[in-house]
Design brief:
Elements (H helix, E strand, L loop, with lengths): L6 E5 L4 H12 L3 E6 L2 H12 L4 E6 L5 H15 L4 E4 L17 H28 L3 E6 L12 H21 L4 E8 L5 H6 L2 H9 L9 H12 L10 E4 L10 H5 L6
Helix pairs in contact: 1-8, 3-4, 4-5
Length: 265
């Protein structure tokens, strides 16, 4: 029960990594608020965990309506009198319109950046005062290895995640005196329903050739890192970008070619 009685707000949390974060935090004793757009689904999922003795509640947030990003944090702070942990899990991409510099319109580029940054900036801004008032807290941003390594496409997504990474460090420095920590988790390719649906076997193979552990990550492995950063075990950890990506990006560029046909050690 590493998160016993901690009030935790998790955005975009009805599917994939977000849903696993909710379950993991609730199992560890957290008082977990799911900030979601689909209230029917959110309510059903929350009830399923509540029936097992966990404390989970669904509240409304729509990242396309920026006022709700602030409102959801204010709601939780009012209901509980505190917020101990904020997990900024929302992030969006658009593989159809978000291509390379030449073929992505400026409006599409800026639209992705605005939504991915607003969901972190505004929600983090809204929890600073309640965290400060209760003696501190932990802000955890779910970013991506895509914010560190340039690609041939997804220019808006990559730039937005790079900005989230820098913002994470800024928040850590600016809020440290209030005992508010801020760290980011950078997943690599993670086996969610969305990835299984949209990722071609060919692209998956190419990506995993450059991932030393040779497999996709799981939502549970991302959630485990969140639990650590939400708990008091990480009380002296702030401003860190923690990659949970199986070592993607570590080897030299020829790694993928060299390991083809090699036996596992």
């Amino acid at each position: 029960m590493r998160l016993e009685n901690k009030v935790i707000l998790v955005t975009a949390s009805t599917r994939g990594i977000g849903w696993e974060i909710v379950q993991s935090c609730a199992r560890e004793g957290g008082v977990v608020y799911m900030a979601v757009r689909d209230q029917q689904r959110g309510g059903e999922l929350a009830q399923a965990l509540t029936s097992k003795g966990m404390w989970v509640k669904s509240v409304y947030m729509d990242a396309q309506r920026e006022e709700t990003l602030t409102a959801v944090a204010e709601l939780v702070a009012t209901e509980e009198g505190r917020i101990d942990v904020l997990v900024n899990n929302f992030g969006m991409g658009d593989p159809v319109r978000d291509q390379d510099l030449e073929h992505t319109s400026f409006d599409d580029f800026m639209g992705i950046i605005r939504r991915n940054l607003a969901s972190v900036y505004l929600t983090s801004q809204a929890v600073i005062e309640p965290m400060r008032a209760s003696g501190g807290g932990s802000i955890i941003n779910i970013s991506s290895v895509g914010g560190r390594y340039p690609d041939l496409a997804r220019v808006g997504y990559g730039v937005s995640k790079a900005a989230v990474n820098f913002l994470t460090k800024d928040i850590a420095v600016q809020c440290a005196r209030s005992r508010i920590r801020c760290n980011a988790i950078l997943p690599g390719i993670t086996e969610t329903d969305a990835v299984r649906k949209h990722l071609s076997p060919e692209y998956s193979h190419l990506f995993l050739r450059h991932t030393p552990l040779g497999r996709m990550g799981t939502p549970q492995e991302i959630a485990a890192a969140v639990v650590y950063l939400a708990s008091d075990e990480s009380a002296y950890t702030t401003g860190q970008l923690i990659e949970v990506g199986g070592g993607f990006g570590l080897p030299n560029p020829s790694y993928g070619d060299l390991i083809e046909g090699m036996r596992p050690m």
